[in-house]
Design brief:
The complex is a heterodimer of chains A (92) and B (212). Chain A is an alpha+beta fold and 92 residues long. Helix content of chain A is 59%, strand content 15%. Chain A is globular. The mean pLDDT of chain A is 91. Chain B is mostly helical and 212 residues long. In chain B, helix 1 runs antiparallel to helix 2, helix 2 packs antiparallel against helix 4 and helix 5 packs antiparallel against helix 6. The longest helix of chain B has 32 residues. Classes of the chains: A alpha+beta (92), B mainly alpha (212).
């Protein structure tokens, strides 16, 4: 059975989905990519916007979520920490 | 009583100080993981490395001070052994046993986390301290071996090697009453153990810690 994702893991998964989509993505793409319900996605997106890991941009009148340099840095840092804790056999 | 080669008394304190520096580095990353995850496992790992590093740092400083006092003729060997050095060794015993107990807590299932409290951790003298340290570390070594077998990554192997070599350090010191060489080998094992931790951190920092 797959382990439940922690909150921080979900936030990083969202950021990774946006990064994979070329740095900006629509909420529906994030919804499927991060495997979340609409309600939970909204909560997490609000938090990422609040912490300035994501920002809202408008392209051709459509709202997109764009990853900020702070968000990219967070993914890199998280990866390092994840690898270290993984080496000790504990998960984030 | 442990036999220490005369030429190694002094340089051995640098081994403790280097180990303390590496330990602080690992505790820094463990603290970062605790900040992210807020999990008890991460907290135990962070506090364990912080306690072990502090223990080695204090031991290193007191040993170096004793060596300098003896070599400069300020004090004789007996005085150095019986006063300031004793303080460093006591802190080291307490700090490392607490650290090993915290490492054991990281790997113990929640319902058994009370178990380390039943160990006679107040046994501070030689060789009791090494017995307790080995007992606690053997569990951590066992679990880190399991982790390495499951993950099959270089980083998990390095962590396993580190704990194993620190375990060897205590095992060799256990028998250091019989030979001076064992004291030297114990310290070689200790520094290699911490260098293994350092190499793991270095690999991750250079982004080479991919799962292979």
């Amino acid at each position: 059975m797959k382990e439940r994702r922690s909150k921080v893991q979900i936030l990083v998964d969202i950021l990774r989905v946006v990064q994979r989509k070329g740095g900006r993505a629509k909420s529906t793409h994030i919804l499927y990519g991060a495997n979340l319900s609409h309600k939970r996605l909204k909560q997490h997106l609000d938090q990422l916007l609040e912490n300035e890991f994501l920002e809202m941009v408008s392209l051709s009148g459509r709202p997109y979520y764009k990853i900020t340099p702070k968000g990219v840095k967070f993914i890199v840092e998280f990866k390092k920490i994840e690898e270290i804790t993984d080496a000790f056999g504990i998960s984030i | 009583m442990i036999l220490i080669p005369e030429w190694f008394f002094g340089p051995h304190s640098f081994v403790y100080i280097i180990c303390a520096m590496i330990g602080f580095l690992v505790s820094f990353y463990s603290y970062r993981s605790y900040q992210l995850a807020k999990g008890k496992d991460h907290l135990y790992l962070y506090l364990g490395f912080a306690s072990l590093s502090m223990a080695f740092l204090i031991l290193g400083i007191t040993e170096l001070y004793s060596y300098l006092s003896i070599s400069s003729g300020v004090t004789n060997m007996f005085e150095a052994y019986s006063s300031f050095r004793d303080f460093g060794i006591w802190i080291y015993y307490a700090g490392s046993v607490i650290a090993y107990a915290l490492f054991a807590l990281v790997y113990l299932p929640k319902e058994y986390r009370i178990l380390p409290l039943f160990l006679p951790m107040w046994w501070k003298g030689f060789p009791y301290f090494h017995s307790i340290a080995l007992l606690l570390l053997s569990f951590t070594i066992f679990r880190s071996t399991g982790n390495w077998f499951i993950k099959r990554t270089k980083n998990s192997m390095l962590v396993f090697i580190s704990f194993l070599l620190i375990g060897f350090y205590h095992l060799l010191l256990y028998f250091a009453a019989f030979s001076e060489l064992l004291f030297v080998l114990a310290h070689v094992s200790l520094i290699l153990g911490f260098l293994s931790f350092f190499y793991m951190i270095f690999r991750v920092s250079r982004n080479k810690g991919r799962r292979k």
